## 1
Amino acid sequence: MTVTSLPQPGPDAQTASAQQAGSAEPAPAGRLLDPAALLLLVVGLATRLYQLDMPRAVVFDEMHYGKYAAYYLKNLFFFDSQPPLGKQLLAFGTYLAGFDGEFVFDRIGTPYPDSVPILRMRLLPAVVGSLLLPATYHLLRELGVSRRAAVLAGILMLLENALLTQSRFLFLEPFLLLFSVLGLLGLARGRRCGGRLSLAALGWMVLGFGFLGAATAVRYSGLMPLLLGCVIVYRDFWTLVPRRDVSGRQLAAQLTVRCLVMVAVPTAVYLGSFYAHLSVLYKAGSGHEGVMTSAFQASLEDGLANIVKNQPLLVGHGSQVTLRHALGRPCWLHSHDTPYPAVYDHDDEDRNSSSQQQVSCFSGKDVNNWWIVKDPDTKDLRVQTPFQPFKHGDIVQLVHGLTGNHLNSNEFKAPLSSSEQEVSCYTKVNASLPVQDLWMVQLVNPKETDGVWHAISSQVRFVHTNDGLALKYSGRKLPKWGHSQQEVVCDKVINQDDTIWNVEEHRYGQAESSAETERQMDLLASDLIPVTAMDLSFWRKFYELQLKMLFNNQEVVQGHTYASDPFEWLTMARGVAYWISPHSNAQIHLLGNAAVWAAASGALCLYAGLALVYLLRRRRGCYDIPDAEWTKMCTICQTILAGFAFNYVPYFVIDHTFFLHHYMLAYIFAVMITACAVDHLYFIADHLGWRPLRHLLTLCLLAWLAACVYTFAEFSVLSYGTTALSAGDVRSLSWRTSWDLIVHKK
């Protein structure tokens, strides 16, 4: 290659270069109704819609997302650790399809009856997956890539078996991928309107961040494209700083508007999706509501509200209550007429116990969850007249309803948590132990109730008056002697989430303490009374739901057969089994097009390596390629290559179980880089003026595309799942032993 050494540009040249980068005027972009884009859409629809109703059975995550769609149609609240927009779109599609929500998506492989219009239900994700092809084409054209390379990117997307598979079922990935690409396309379009924010540029920016916000509202992995969009917009602003035709006031206005759009638009989309989510899902009944607090559950129709209807609000002497662990795993303070073992047997040490009655946290409804709140100065357990509710700072005793024993704590180490103190119900088994059964009521949210202890809404800590320790759910599972329930301890660290409880069920007791049989019958008859919903604001419900989603480990599944790590994604070391026919070896298995996949991983290294070499040589004053080509290359690196890095690198530090489909968002950027690398190789051939090199590139490209078409056709049986395969057919498709294709029929 001929190298021309040029002097380093001076300040004026640098300013002009910055101005050129700020305007980001790429090569002429295609029209929205570009014939090539339309052709890609048509062919994409043909491949995605082909036998879309097959297989007529639940495929992989349709078990979850189909079920969520049914919940939306029935207005039943459900909990999921990902945002709701993608599930709402699927539900909308199933609603338009005429689905009534009655089918139970209980397991993978369950056949769909004729009453389920599965073809129409799968139509929306298939169309969205097809739109990804022209969207990719237009994005590359906006970045200055040649029409030939943009078409190539669309063809590679078309021939990618993994994208085909993800587009044919009730999955979220089609929405995530399309919204991410459309968001970057909107920002790229806005850049063509000039460095300054004209009305048109502002409109495209709002549209771009709207789509990026939608991607975030589909899955939290959409945060990465959103962050990339913010970096792109900030970089464009940075190119305005050295421009002498832009005043300081204009710069401040530009920065303010950009920041406002970057924050306000995605936030509005995200909040809007949750507002719709919480507005539509106003009933209980899915079984998911148990993970939420008592107050949240009581706000739903037909759920906890059916339990707490007309129950008294104020907690005072004689109140019969169930105490729920408020903020973490749903369980209730519990005791049963069984003592702790005399000795806690541990590998490292054996510790003596108090031998008193066990106290635990039980995750099911049970009559042994009932407690009676008692004033220490009052002997019987009846509600007194006039009634005086307990307040923040009052001292109480908690009497176990069925056994009549008081909640107690002595200086014995807890069964499992040796640094914390045992909690028991005091009995006369060990009469030498002192009675230490007084607890101070500390309200976490006293301002909401004027310092008075309320059922449902008051969050309360119980602090042991003898030693200042707080009653705590430890989260550790007791052995068989503790019926495998959860350990309850006293902890010196008072201010933590696991020390917070709330009264869930509540009634006023009328039985006297001496009439044990009467008291027990009173409690046994207390089961679940009938209700009105509690009114919570959107913001309170949204805040609680966000906390639950943030700390939920729903996606951590250790040791899954088809789990893979980010390093394995680059070589497609492992796929994912989605469905297997009960009658043959026909199956849906997530695998990519090996010819496209290998080229994409190689192109990442090639393009990044070339850009780095050019950069280092330009720093040395050696300009191997014209400024226009270098500017285009920088734009591609800052958008497409950065897009891959933003969506790939974070997986190395996230503690979750991953599968190949988690790579799809990063992978589409790798495919785009492949087309950009081919485009640049043609540029090099033209720049050198060596025609045989161009012919050689064309021959290699055609041979590679032929391999891509062959691989697509060969593995399409794993994307469509309509072909009965013999054991030999499956083995012939197992190009790598780690792919674990399923053979269950000879």
## 2
Amino acid sequence: MATKSARESTEEGTEPKRRKIGADSVQSLVTEQELATVSGGHLREEDVAIVEWVNRQSRFSGIIKQRYSDFLVNEIAPDGRVIHLTSLAVPDEPEREEAKSLLEEESFLSEEIEQQLEETSRGERESTTIKTSNDKLKRGRIHEAIKAKFPQLESSTKDDGEEKVIYVVRATKSNKSRRNPWPKSRGGDYCRFVLYKEYKDTADAISLMAKFINAKPTLFAFAGSKDKRAVTVQAASAYRVSAETLAKLNEKLRNIRVGNFSYSNSPLRLGELEGNRFQIILRNVKEDTSVVDSCLASLQDKGFINYYGMQRFGTSSVPTYEVGKALLSSRWQDAIGLILTPLRKDEPDVAKVCSLWSDTGNASKCLKQMPKRCTIEIQLLKGIQRFGMKDAWNCLNAIPRSTRLMYVHSYQSLIWNRLVSRRLQQFQFNVLPGDLVQHKESSSVKEISEEELPCYTIFDVVVPLPGHDVKLPQNQMEEWYNSMLKEDGFTLAGLKHRVKDYSLSGAYRKLLVKPTDVDWSHLTYDDVTVSLIETDLQKLEGSFAHRPSEGQLKAVRVNFSLPSSSYATMALRELTKTDTSSAFQTTLNATA
């Protein structure tokens, strides 16, 4: 039975009927609706209330993301600058260069001594002894020079009879940080850089980078997550990780590059972006160019419904919003059960391990068999291994906070989509008394009065994401908010969760969005495996191979910019009038 503690509290509301799944040691209670959802395979747009269009008549056929390289995303900085990877070079560091120069110029350093230092740094030699003078200032400069040229070594002054010598050995783990202080000449504690990635989530790319340099992922920061199935370029920062260290990753990691390094006094912060610039190829277009041009002109003029796209709701058989509902209800064991569900038709190897978990509750055995790509499941199983299922709340905390927040935000997004679709079905694109608009100078909102209706268009209207600190529209939508939340056992006030991470204050989101800086061109091709857009890395390396040809197949290249948190796939959906879910797009690939 649920208690009212922070870990076990259940928010007030209607509690749906639940049934048990799993072995006795790992039982969780899920609703029939949740069970049906996770057992039904991949989500489609209608499952998350993506059902309306701005222009129902205008459409043309086209495959979205037939190749991940058909979808290029470049982040737009707050100053409006489109971020590109243009250099892999490491910036010069004056003090370090001066120190290296000093070491090379000192007359005491023979070729033999330098060779010994090299061997010591590689672990081939236990130590190197350098004879020096009794001049303390000169010895200090020598220590600094050795530290700069060989940061993996540590040096100390020792007495050798009446003489002083500098004794050099490899640095131990306990004092490596002391022997490698952060130079003030860098101008800040944060290395800012451009992250280029292909077919990787932003969080996964950061975790991989951190692993290779033996650092914590929490040292890194970025403004926003980018699509996995795409080629993306974005700004990032790392606390006290040098450009030199990051640049070495370019030799080790596949489909990741870092560059355009600089140092700053501040980290990059979540949301510190203006939006994103997209370059997209739609393949296998059947219609005449005049039809395509008409559709794109309509998108440019009329915009699209600012739905949360399918990426928001997860790519596995388990919708992220179902896990979010469990977390918001403080049903910790249920959340674990949903994340580790064996009902995964598309991932038989993962389903096998999750079935083992459901049958045995043996986290250690499951960890040995779980595929390495399943980072969330592995983190959760490690939490279970450490805390046990009786402390399910702490088990879940083994998953990064950003991922846990993704689950609860996914539920917010589902409610937003449902509300918007219901509103459009009932009131079309009319502005209503009581609708909300946002002040340009601040994040505050105001109601539209009857008299003010002529002053606003549907492009001004914002719709709240449910939360305990939002103002609701003062019209029929207010009733819809409360009834939809009640169906799931929540109230607006109840979204102020006892666990701070899961407390949802809410926000405001434009109902419609117009893409900006729209342009497009028509292409032909024959080989579906050949890239049709030049990436930043190809431009940097001069490796782009495609040249315009008279092919039999038609494609359209579309370029546009969107504000942050708007989904390009929802703009493309307005053009093609097809389901943008991966499950449906895969069927188009199969028949292309």
